[in-house]
Design a protein that fits this description.
- The structure holds 2 protein chains of 2 kinds.
- Chain A has a 6-stranded parallel sheet, with helices on both faces.
- In chain A, helix 8 (224-235) crosses helix 9 (255-268).
- Chain A has 2 domains: 57-159 and 302-327, Rossmann fold, CATH 3.40.50; 161-300, Rossmann fold.
- In chain A, 46% of the residues lie in helices and 16% in strands.
- Chain A contains 13 helices and 12 strands.
- By secondary structure, chain B is an all-alpha fold.
- Chain B is 73% helix and 1% strand.
- Chain B has 13 helices and 2 strands; from the N terminus they run H-H-H-H-H-H-E-H-H-H-H-E-H-H-H.
- In chain B, strands 1-2 form a two-stranded antiparallel sheet.
- The model of chain B is unreliable at 1-12 (pLDDT under 50).
- The chains are: A alpha/beta, B mainly alpha.
- At the A-B interface, helix 2, helix 4 and helix 5 of A face helix 2, helix 3, helix 7, helix 8 and helix 10 of B.
């Protein structure tokens, strides 16, 4: 293009001029922005009420925005915010399940001088630096759902996953009358919450010598599709010559493994013929429970997690003592109790009214 | 194009220069306009010194990868593997650091960064080699390499994130403590600025830079003029990988863990930065400072939307529209 027109010498000189020009302009603008920004005035202390509404602002950061689980947490946070008279800034990372995205959101809300943060960390180590930075600037942080490797937070509000796994184990054992052959499908290596559920289930099973755990070392993997394949592979050795299933009980540790296992059982025509207890809920799992293809679902309470997260943060801001660990509990839904209001609330969280959807 | 130019009315010299100056400044003006807009309608905290520092820190990773991508796009190529390369970089660093004993962690951190840069530059070189030897278009080769490298990162890390001991690497992009305020921005951002100036000089004065521009302007002509096209391309992709590795070092600094799933889709941010900054995917056009401004524009939008509490879907629509507008304006200027 222009290259061919100018002689190399001219070209060089032109380039030098262009270069100098460009960088000089860049530096001037950079300095202008820097000086503009370095005025001391705008740096208000954290916890100041928002100027536009006159209310305190709390940042709530989930792991993602689109799952029902996170929508329920959002609903719970809104409920608490209404009671406390504060404003909620609900912001997930732009890319769901991306650690870097979540770090950026934490940093942005810290710069925004929110009064406090409620965070469901995607990673127990990677989110530590931004959280410590927030705490260092006097912004208290409540951790929900998953743990963070630090003790600088106000409180850790989450399901006791070990206890949830134990409840699932005892429920299955009762259904089996304390005898039979059972399997457990794990979720993924390194996922702390599901690993505690697995341990809880295994520990509960030690109380029932009549139950033989014939397979507990298989992993379902991250997606439903992976879990479906893993379930098929897991069940294959237990197929009897007459087409039946040589198993009495099955336990799965989260929504994706439960659903994958359900699909595999349905495809092989075994659904309803084997006792099956899973974890978490979804429309498909609820229907299977109603049809007695499933016999139990251990349910967490995400709305309570969002609600308690904001409540504990506000209590801390008022100077009240707050317990370091808050268990939001878990319940076992069965085909028989699933219409009771308390269980129904967990099976079909009423997040839509709070989020003003529909 | 040639006919167009012939029919264009003759302009006075000063008019042309004015037009050209405006054209070069357009991304800058866009950045300022967007910044002023958010400063006016956003919360006060948006224009605080701390937030400017945060924007600089958050731009560093995309900016670093954009240095290499600018060179690649200048030759008329593209590198879709850069996001995966960043992830591989973080994984390699974490693996090396894990093996280190606590006594010489200082040196091991440097070694880990070096190993990551070597691995990433190697990936880039492999892309270049495949493109020139197999004569497959860069889009396809790097699309394949994106999956290959991502898979390698996941395999190396056994499909989970790797915790690593704390070293000075973690401070590269960490927010400055009160007693380090004199640095204005963290070392990682300074590194980016120094390398950006360096790359601008390379593009303008070095043989590789001139050859890369020649290849991007017209590959056939360049070949006929004796430019070693294949060698230039291999160097360019290797450098793309190298800068991807540096972006990986910065990414590790922010995560403090090796994460094989990080930076999915980062390549699109990097390409968008180069294109917003005036780069042409047809090759032959693009500048380092334009690409940096492009990266800054996207960070400012993200930060502004975040501080205003806008939903993610609003933010994504706004960013998308700005990319299209920026490139459309650029093409309009070229008519």
């Amino acid at each position: 293009m222009a290259m061919q027109a100018a002689s190399p010498d001219q070209e060089l000189r032109m380039n030098a001029a262009k270069l100098w020009h460009g960088w000089a302009v860049g530096c001037v603008i950079g300095m202008a922005l820097g000086i503009g920004g370095c005025r001391p005035a705008p740096e208000s202390a954290p916890g100041q009420p928002d100027r536009s509404s006159g209310r305190r602002v709390i940042g709530v950061i989930p792991k993602g925005a689109t799952h029902v689980f996170w929508k329920s947490i959002h609903a719970g946070a809104l409920k608490a915010a209404q009671e406390e008279g504060v404003e909620i800034l609900w912001k997930a990372g732009l890319k769901e399940d991306d650690r870097e995205s979540q770090i950026k959101v934490v940093e942005d809300l810290v710069n925004r001088n929110v009064s406090g943060l409620v965070l469901a960390p995607l990673d127990d180590a990677a989110l530590r630096p931004p959280v410590l930075q927030a705490v260092g600037q006097g912004i208290p942080v409540v951790i929900i759902d998953s743990d963070l490797k630090t003790d600088k937070y106000v409180s850790f509000v989450a399901t006791d996953n070990y206890e949830g796994g134990r409840k699932g184990g005892h429920h299955l054992a009762r259904l089996l009358n304390g005898k039979g052959r059972a399997v457990m499908l794990r979720y993924a290596e390194g996922s702390a919450s599901t690993m505690s559920r697995e341990q809880g289930f295994l520990d509960a099973m030690t109380n029932y010598p009549g139950i033989a755990l014939v397979s507990t070392n298989r992993y379902g993997g991250a997606t439903t599709e992976d879990a479906y394949k893993a379930s098929e592979n897991m069940l294959a050795p237990f197929r009897k010559p007459d087409g039946g299933l040589d198993l009495d009980g099955i336990f799965c540790v989260n929504e994706s493994t439960t659903f994958g296992m359900l699909r595999a059982l349905q495809d092989a025509g075994w659904a309803g013929k084997v006792l099956f207890v899973g974890f978490d809920s979804s429309d498909m799992l609820n229907r299977a429970l109603r049809n007695r293809e499933m016999h139990g679902l251990v349910l967490q309470d995400p709305m309570a997690m969002g609600y308690q997260g904001v409540k504990k943060l506000m209590a801390h801001l008022r100077g009240e003592p707050v317990e370091k660990r808050v268990d939001t509990g878990s319940q076992v839904a069965t085909p028989d109790n699933m219409n009771e209001p308390e269980i129904r609330r967990l099976l079909e969280p009423d997040y839509r009214t709070w989020l003003k959807e529909e | 194009m040639v006919n167009d130019a012939a029919e264009r009315p003759i302009r006075s010299g000063s008019g042309l220069r004015w037009r050209e100056g405006l054209s070069r400044l357009a991304p800058f003006l866009g950045l300022i306009a967007i910044f002023v807009l958010f400063a006016a309608i956003g919360p006060e905290s948006f224009r605080s010194a701390r937030n400017l520092e945060t924007i600089a820190r958050q731009t560093a990773i995309v900016g670093m990868a954009a240095l290499g991508m600018t060179l690649v796009i200048l030759t008329g190529g593209i590198d879709l593997a850069v996001g995966s390369v960043v992830a591989l970089g973080t994984v390699v660093i974490a693996i090396v650091l894990r093996r280190a004993d606590a006594a010489n962690l200082h040196w091991m951190a440097a070694a880990a960064a070096g190993a990551a840069l070597a691995a990433c530059a190697g990936c880039g070189w492999l892309s270049g080699w495949l493109i020139t030897r197999l004569r497959v278009v860069p889009f396809i080769v790097t699309l394949g390499m994106m999956l290959v490298v991502r898979g390698a990162a996941k395999g190396l890390s056994h499909e989970q994130k790797i915790d690593a001991p704390e070293t000075w690497l973690n401070d590269l992009l960490a927010s400055l403590a009160a007693d380090q305020r004199w640095m204005l921005v963290p070392p990682g951002v300074w590194l980016l600025l120094v390398l950006a100036v360096g790359m601008t000089l390379v593009l303008s004065y070095s043989r590789l830079g001139r050859h890369a521009l020649a290849v991007g302007s017209n590959e056939q002509t360049a070949r006929l003029c004796g430019v070693p096209v294949n060698r230039v391309k291999m160097w360019v992709y290797a450098m793309g990988g190298f800068f991807g590795g540096l972006a990986g070092v910065l990414q590790f600094s922010r995560l403090t863990v090796g994460d094989p799933t990080v930076a999915v889709g980062l390549e699109l941010d990097v390409i968008a930065a180069v294109v917003i900054g005036g780069g042409s995917l047809a090759g032959g056009e693009g500048s380092i400072k334009g690409s940096l401004v492009g990266a800054l524009i996207m960070s400012v939008i993200r930060s502004g939307c975040s501080q205003m509490g806008l939903s993610n879907w609003v933010q994504e629509i706004i960013t998308g529209m700005i990319i299209i507008t920026a490139v459309a304006l650029d093409r309009f200027r070229h008519r």
